[in-house]
Design brief:
302 residues, mainly alpha, two-stranded antiparallel ribbon, 2 strands, elongated
């Protein structure tokens, strides 16, 4: 007889050696719930056990928005651009001055130091922009995972109370599946590490390309999962007297990493300005649409 293990979060039976629960997505290799003091409002890994706890976790996830879903100004793109222009200007002006001064040693040293300082400032500004893009992606993914877990459990508990579990089982199973898929595919990237890696001599451009790859890929795929989740949540919550109107059926545009990379190379890096613009603006749009859905659901939880 095949050996099995029981999920400590939902009680489902899984084949021995499984990493994730196929029902709730719980990490089966994590310490048992009894060994870890559960958070007061639950978490994405340990769903709340009561309706009040699920509602509390959902509301708490909404309150975390100012820290996780940062609406970045597209003006951030101008900082590294202006810094790069400052480097170019420093080089040009310095060469002109040196040409007239006869390339005096002291003047050359001042010029080199000035160029190095401008380059360092440009690099720092560029690193800060990359850090903020990666960090908000990580923080938003964690918050949304907690949000989905709370809503799934809230609907599951309400369905049991009203004897609708069988009727809504397909909706709940689909939401569980989306939650599991998101957790499996939206791995965390170290914002600090990637902000530094792109400046490694000779190979930094490879790290930059990969960083742009996972940032570009994340937006569309993440948004599609969220739209699929909200559709199932809307359909199931309507059976509990909740009227939730989806603010938008349009997913974020699908950005081609290969196309963007080719155009960036052909334009000698100028296209990178637009690339960063869409990385900033796409997630800004996703946040705003998601907040509308969250606020509607929170207002009707009872």
């Amino acid at each position: 007889m095949e050996e099995t293990i029981r999920c400590p979060a939902c009680g489902a039976t899984m084949p021995f050696g499984s990493r994730w629960c196929q029902k709730c997505g719980h990490d089966l290799r994590a310490p048992a719930p009894s060994q870890v003091p559960p958070p007061g409002i639950g978490s994405a890994h340990h769903p709340p056990a009561t309706e009040a706890a699920a509602r509390g976790q959902f509301v708490e996830a909404i309150r975390a928005r100012p820290k996780t879903d940062e609406i970045l100004s597209v003006m951030w793109i101008l900082l590294p651009v202006l810094a790069s222009l400052a480097v170019a200007v420093a080089i040009c002006i310095g060469m002109i001055v040196l040409a007239f001064s006869g390339w005096v040693t002291g003047a050359v040293i001042v010029w080199v130091v000035g160029v190095v300082v401008a380059v360092v400032i440009a690099a720092i500004l560029f690193a800060v922009l990359n850090y903020r893009l990666i960090d908000r992606q990580n923080l938003h993914s964690k918050r949304e995972a907690m949000l989905r877990a709370a809503l799934i459990e809230y609907i599951r508990i309400k369905s049991r109370e009203k004897n609708m579990s069988q009727m809504l089982s397909s909706h709940i199973a689909t939401m569980d599946s989306i939650q599991y898929e998101a957790r499996a595919n939206e791995g965390e990237h170290s914002a600090t590490l990637w902000a530094i890696l792109i400046f490694i001599p000779f190979v930094g451009f490879i790290f930059l390309a990969y960083m742009l790859y996972f940032l570009t890929k994340f937006g569309n795929e993440h948004d599609k999962r969220w739209h699929a989740f909200t559709q199932q949540a809307q359909a199931s919550s309507s059976h509990h007297g909740m009227t939730v109107i989806l603010p938008s059926w349009r997913s974020l545009p699908e950005r081609s990493f290969i196309l963007y990379l080719i155009v960036t190379v052909l334009t000698m890096g100028l296209f990178l300005i637009y690339w960063y613009y869409v990385l900033i603006d796409d997630m800004n749009d996703h946040f705003k649409v998601q907040w509308q859905f969250e606020d509607q659901v929170a207002a009707q939880m009872h």
